[in-house]
Every structure is written in structure tokens, then in C-alpha cells.
Amino acid sequence: VQLQASGGGLVQAGGSLRLSCAASGITFSDYSMDWFRQAPGKEREFVARVAAGSGNTYYADSAKGRFIISSNDAKKTMYLQMDSLKPEDTAVYLCAVQRGNTVYWGQGTQVTVSS
Question: How far apart are CA 16 and CA 37, in angstroms?
Fold first, then answer.
């Protein structure tokens, strides 16, 4: 199983980025899809989820109204559209997929928001 995250970069406050996470080796639609982030010196925190089956989406309070998680089963790719970025959004963003007790993590992609 491989998860390849991309799309991070340096952006000014108020700007936008779209992260992608391409999966291989799994039946993509069987898994819930998550984005987490980890800032230096801080614990990893949940950002957003697309639930398997229902397709319901869930967001951390910090992401609500600014971030949108989506997925394309045919491309086996999930996305995180991030708008109105703030300096406090600076972190390594990681994608993960979960089915039951099985979780696969991708490598991170760095997002840096300058003030």
C-alpha cells in the first residue's frame, strides 16, 4: 500500500493550496480517508475525513468553513482544498486511509503560510 501526498508549498496568508494524496494497493472506496497535520513541537492533529460508504465529511473546528476534503475513487486520490490560509495552518500535512483497525499513512507534504 502506498499513499503519495503532494501539493504543499509556501503561500501567503489568505491564499489557497490544494493537497492531493494518491493511493495504490487498496480498494480505495473501502476506506475512510483522512488528512492530519503536525506542526513543529506539536502533536499530530486531525484535519478532515471522508467516511467510507456514506461519503460523509467531518472537519476539525480549525478547518471548518475554509477546507474541503474530497475524493475521486476512479483516480484513487483524495484532496484537501485549503482556502483563507493562516500562519497557524503551517504544518506537515499527512494523508491516511482507514478500514476497521487498519490504517495506512502517507508521507507528509509541507505547508508553510507566511504572514
Answer: 16
Query: Which DSSP string do the residues of 2-61 spell out, in sequence order?
Result: EEEEE--EEEETT--EEEEEEEESS-GGGSEEEEEEE-TTS--EEEEEE-TTT--EEE-T
48-100: per-residue pLDDT in tens? 999 998 999 999 999 999 999 999 999 999 999 999 999 999 999 999 999 99
Burial of residue 111 (CB within 10 Å: 0-12, 13-18, 19+) is buried
pLDDT of residue 53: 87
- Average confidence (pLDDT) over 33-43: 96
Q: How far is CA 94 from the centre of its chain?
A: 6
Q: Report CA 33 to chain centroid distance, whole Å.
A: 8
d(CA 40, CA 8): 16
Residue 85 burial (10 A CB sphere; 0-12, 13-18, 19+): buried
Say if CB 82 and CB 111 are below 8 A apart.
yes
Amino acid letter, residue 17: L
